[in-house]
Amino acid sequence: MGAIKRDTLTKLELQIMQAIWRLGTSNVSAVQESLKQRLAYTTVQTMLNILEKKGKLKRTLVGRSYEYSATVTEAAASGHAVRDLVDRMFGGSSEELVMSLIKSKQIDAKQIARLSKMLEKRGGEG
Q: Which key words are in the record (predicted)?
């Protein structure tokens, strides 16, 4: 069977990826030690292998153990997660996402004005 292809990451997968992005190329022990959540070595190893099968990491045999490195950037993973959220929760409408943020008071008029100015400086569409 081919590699598992999914762009979105589970909560635990994201924690593992954040460790790799922060540390750079790392082995299981280094990733395990860097996590806030205490996980068994075998759990971390399993998650790294899942991420490798999904194409998010690559692994290289160094001595008797594997070292893992990211094949996707944090920005790319974030973009996929936002697109997935917009597609699943808001029918593909970014405007509906923004309206939801406004309705739930997670963003206010001052923040919207600041974002509008930032967009204008970037030339509109970015």
A: DNA-binding, Transcription, Transcription regulation
Burial of 69 (C-beta count, 10 Å sphere; 0-12/13-18/19+)? middle
Extended beta strands in the chain, E state: 57-62, 65-70
CA 53 – CA 66 distance, rounded (Å)? 14
Q: Residue holding tokens 């082995």? A: 27
Measured in whole angstroms, the distance separating CA 66 from the mean position of its chain's CA atoms is 22
Using pLDDT thresholds of 50, 70 and 90, give the confidence band for residue 8.
confident
Note the pTM of the prediction, 2 decimals: 0.76
**Span 13-43, pLDDT tens digits:** 999 999 999 999 999 999 999 999 999 999 9
Cα–Cα distance, 76 to 65 (Å, whole number): 28
**Residue 9: how many CA atoms within 13 Å on its side-chain side?**
25
Sketch out the chain's domains with CATH numbers: 11-70 (1.10.10.10), 74-123 (no CATH)
* Residue type at position 17: M
What angle, 0 to 180 degrees and rounded to 10, lies between the N-to-C axes of helices 41-53 and 11-23? 90
